[in-house]
Amino acid sequence: MLVSEYYSVLGLPLNSSLEEIKKAYRNKARLYHPDINHSPDAKDKFIQATEAYDFLLANHEKGNLDDEDFFRIMEDWRKYRQDRSRQQAQYFARRSFISFKNSKYYKSTRILNASSAIFTLAVSITVLVFTIFGYILRLRNPAPGTENTTLFSFIILMTISTILVSVSIISLISILSANRKQRRKK
Fold first, then answer.
1. Considering 107, 132, 148, which residue would you say is the last residue of a domain?
2. Which of 26, 38, 115, 162 gives a 20 to 30 Å CA spacing to 141?
3. Average pLDDT in the 25-39 region?
4. In this structure, are 60 and 102 located in the same domain?
5. pLDDT at residue 64 greater than cutoff 70
6. Do 80 and 13 reside in the same domain of the chain?
């Protein structure tokens, strides 16, 4: 399989970020796990998605290689990792989805969700703080003829930053509640 085929198995464009790869794999695993999806080809699609995820995860930093290095890496992958990845995917396919969902393999895809939500919250709070301080500084040191535009800009920036803070808090709360539910089920 070529790298582009691995990306297409997960439904991703080339050069997707690591977070996008993990999220796409989580969605495909949930969609095609044989414990949930009883169609005849679900197991094969689950195994392909797991193989694609393993390859893209292992070779994500090596995305900008020349052709010779790419083919060498692909050959190494085929020799050593592809068979191991397929065996691991078959093992996960035989397990129930609940036990697969509790595995370290699946949980590793959720780590980025919480960290990205915390980062988004920090950025949105920073925007809010800088909006307030910027407006205060502008009031102390006004430029001639900008009194109305300063108030208008402040209102727009406060609205946007308040929306950002609200969305990031809601996102973080939903991720934390999902993690709590996951721990309670254990």
1. 107
2. 162
3. 86
4. yes
5. no
6. yes
Q: Domain range spanning residue 100?
A: 3-107
pLDDT tens, position by position, 43-58: 888 888 888 888 787 7
* Closest CA relative to residue 2, chosen from 74, 87, 76, 81: 74
What percentage of the chain exceeds 70 in pLDDT? 76
Residue labelled with tokens 């989580």: 26
Residues 136 and 151 reside in one and the same domain: yes
pLDDT band per the 50, 70, 90 thresholds, residue 158 = very high
User: Which position has the token pair 């390859």?
Assistant: 55
Instruction: Give the C-alpha distances (Å, rounded to integers) separating 20 from 15, 149, 154.
Output: 10, 40, 34
Hey, what are 49's tokens?
């998605």
Contact between 51 and 82 (Cβ < 8 Å): yes
Dihedral of alpha carbons 60, 62, 63, 67, sign: negative
Identify which has the larger pLDDT, 152 or 159.
159
Residues 149 and 162 in one domain: yes
Last residue of a domain, one of 64, 79, 107: 107
State the residue for tokens 């997707």: 16
CA distance 85 to 69: 21
Do 27 and 100 share a structural domain? Answer: yes
> Residue 75 corresponds to which tokens in the numbers above?
């050959």
CA angle 148, 145, 133 (to 5 degrees): 60
Identify the pLDDT of residue 129: 93
**pTM confidence score:** 0.45
